[in-house]
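step 4 of 6: structure.
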Amino acid sequence: MAMATATERPAHLKPVSLKTDTAVEMIGVHKWYGEFHVLRDINLKVTRGERIVVCGPSGSGKSTMIRCINRLEEHQQGKIIVDGVELTNDLKRIDEIRRDVGMVFQHFNLFPHLTILENCTLAPIWVRKMPKKDAEEIAMHYLTRVKIPEQAHKYPGQLSGGQQQRVAIARSLCMSPKIMLFDEPTSALDPEMVKEVLDTMVSLAEEGMTMIVVTHEMGFARQVANRVIFMDAGQIVEMNTPDEFFKNPQHERTKLFLSQILH
Amino acid sequence: MAITTEPVAYVRTAPIAEQPPPMMARGWLAWMRENLFSSVGNTILTLIALYIIYLVVPPAIRFFFIDAVWTGSNREACLAANVGREVGACWAYVNAKLSYFVYGSYPWDDRWRVDIVFALGAFGIAWLLWLDAPKRGLGALYFFVIFPIAAFILLRGWPAIGLQRVDTSLWGGILVTLIVSIVGIVVSLPLGVLLALGRRSRLPLIRLACIIFIEVVRGVPLITVLFMANTMLPLFLPGNMSPDRLLRPLVGVALFASAYMAEVVRGGLQAIPKGQYEGAMSLGLGYWRMMRLIILPQALRIVIPGIVNTFIGLFKDTTLVSIVGIFDLIKTVEVTLVDPTWATPVTRLTGYAFAGVFYFICCYGMSRYSLAVERRLAAGQKR
Ligand SMILES: Nc1ncnc2c1ncn2[C@@H]1O[C@H](COP(=O)(O)OP(=O)(O)O)[C@@H](O)[C@H]1O
Ligand SMILES: [Mg+2]
């Protein structure tokens, strides 16, 4: 709803959509860190426009799983197919996939030596070869959407955590991603800033963005998720609609986890 | 409940308005008491420092200015017996030899060419170092491409356009010192960055090659590198091609400095958090773009003190090129020391004092400039 009132999309900013109906498909994915088996036979299919929330105890492999989707981590067995393209060692293909898959990190990872505006225009200019003027126009559009256009010429270090995370979201959006990955986007924020970031994500979901979100914000999961995934010890142990997931958890581990975080 | 409503310090009943900080006005006497004589130990240190200043500064001032001889055409002017008092620096000697200190044996009639190169270089350096200068991209093009070509043609000569050929064996003095150090500085930074990246590369062959280069070059004295460059460089080149005798130590100095630079830059790279790489990669930036736009600007900024340290070391190390027969500033000073026209007890001291002042001004200038840059960058992005 917040989004409906956002500024008009610039004319040259065409909405991008996925080429296929399956945004991400993981088939029998395994990964090891040395001897340590982090991901064990992960199977997951995310369809276009779907919102998936991933939760689970710390160290269960949630980050590792979504980082495999844009190859920040390499899987050693199984297949990962992103919008019809399989992830292999082909560096060119990896960069192409990364262009179309936005990622928001727990610690924002903004570039501290660049202004907010430069953070947002860098990739469109250098990766998408967009003229600077167009890139700035798009950046201002998205900064307006995340409600901080007035901060455009400041440096990340001068903004609050919540503002920085919203900039990080805007920076991803400037690349017109087809899929957005979020890795605990609100965990590093002071409580009063969580809502502003979640609001931004909700409005993104309402626009039909395909999203995979690692979070423990159960309110967010209830509101926007199509499916909730619960991970434990490198495996997906439960996958259900939010209603069923919260009302009727099947797995012992899930029940314990929910009782801990929902008090 | 009978709770007393006495004014209790723990809980405010009304908000306090903002107040100005307490007055800090203090005279210089208070300042001295606080900073120089605040305790017995502090007072002793202050007195020792004053005594050292008393020992060092007045004699230096006497040597450089009060007792100095400023004019004269030969050694007679600087002999204590003729002057009738103690003689400090014999600036008359420096004055007489100044043009040799600056140009070496560069032919008299062609020294205007060197002057033009100095002027062009100073212009380029000012353009680059002045951070608010207009068109700094063009300035870089000028300094790194146009200026070197022009300087080479002017200094070396080009008979086709009427510039008589001047062999590098005639070049000398400050001219050579500046050439060796500026080439060393300009080459060692990019080469050092490449070596540092190579040392962190995931490709084992590149990593190994960089480690071997850095450790070998860093592990031997510069004199060895200079001798090796002098004798081995001709062996690498085919047949009758023999590299210029000035070029050889130039390569040696540049390679030597780049090995040090590589380690300085690597220190900066290590200080960049993994998240910066991940942020850049997740946007689809390839390796080189990520390095150039995200990682290196931050890494180099962190290690500016180390980089300038290496530059200053390199600048002073250029004096060693005299070992392989190059007439840098120190060497030209030494040559004039045996000139009987100026043989006095203070000539040697004066010559080295002159060289010392020259090196100090250059190095201190670099140091101050880098401090200014650091302060400015720090003001831009507060973390
Ligand atoms: N680079 C790494 N090397 C070795 N082990 C790692 C590395 N990254 C993560 N791990 C381990 O893998 C497990 C899963 O990590 P992670 O995916 O970050 O969990 P989560 O995000 O669910 O908290 C943890 O036990 C963690 O210690
Ligand atoms: Mg995690």
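step 5 of 6: annotate
 - The longest helix of chain B spans residues 347-380.
 - Residues 166-346+355-382 of chain B form a domain with the MetI-like fold fold (CATH 1.10.3720.10).
step 6 of 6: archive
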